[in-house]
Amino acid sequence: MDILYLLIPLSVVLALVILAGLWWAVDRGQFEGIEQEGSRILQDD
Fold first, then answer.
1. Which of helix, strand or coil describes residue 2?
2. Can you tell me whether residue 40 is helix, strand or coil?
3. What's the pLDDT score for residue 38?
4. Are 27 and 21 in contact (CB under 8 A)?
């Protein structure tokens, strides 16, 4: 039972880190123009 006092805060911290990483990626424009990237692979250079 004592392990829950460690695991619950760690899981909350991990969730906040994941959310911060997602927010950072969206804020930096990582998900902009994903349609062009998919078609770029199919085109010859």
1. coil
2. helix
3. 73
4. no
Report the C-alpha gap between 37 and 32 in whole angstroms: 10
Please state the pTM of the whole predicted model: 0.67
**Residues 25, 31: Cα–Cα separation, whole Å:** 7
Q: Per the structure block, which two tokens stand in for 7?
A: 């695991």
Instruction: Report the b/e string of 33-43 with b at 16+ CB within 10 A.
Output: eeeeeeeeeee
Token couple for 22 = 């997602």
pLDDT beyond 90 at 44: no
Quote the CA–CA distance of 31 and 28 in Å, as a whole number: 9
* C-alpha angle 44-36-43 in degrees, rounded to nearest 5: 10
